[in-house]
């Protein structure tokens, strides 16, 4: 009797780059900041805490699961699955939210800077967040672009650790 062949899509080992994602693990409170006029014409600047997110490893530590809940009306809650990307030292985030939106983001986490980016015709997006030296704050912002050339700030998004990474 011969041994069953292993499927070709089973990795031979865990990529070392996945260890960098440990900086995100834990529970976080989210704070969003909107500039004047962003929510509606003539609206004031708004800073609001009303969301939380957790990052936990799936068994095997090949995938980091992000779950986020937002208490603001109209803002989506959802889940994202993060794993190794196709290029060295990159990641991919598969994003799903309560509106039924599905998106894939290219992601990096290097030198304390976390980036997410997607290129989609008519609606490009990117997030850049800087992790504090003590690992308890990630300060960043989402931006969007119609063409990938001219970027506009959508909103600031800061993560504040509830449990240290």
Give a brief rundown of this model.
With 165 residues, the chain is mainly β. It has one domain (17-161): Lipocalin, CATH 2.40.128.20. It has strands spanning 26-34, 46-57, 64-70, 78-84, 91-97, 102-110, 113-118, 124-131, 137-145, 152-161.
General description of the model:
- There is one protein chain.
- A hairpin with a 2-residue loop joins β6 and β7.
- The chain has a single domain (17-161), classed as Calycin beta-barrel core domain (Lipocalin).
- The chain has no helices and 10 strands.
- The chain is mostly beta strands and 165 residues long.
- It has strands at 26-34, 46-57, 64-70, 78-84, 91-97, 102-110, 113-118, 124-131, 137-145, 152-161.
- The protein has a 10-stranded antiparallel barrel.
The CATH topology name reads Lipocalin
Average residue-wise pLDDT: 91
* Element-by-element helix/strand order: EEEEEEEEEE
User: What best-fitting shape do the alpha-carbon axes yield?
Assistant: globular
Largest sheet strand order? 1-2-3-4-5-6-7-8-9-10
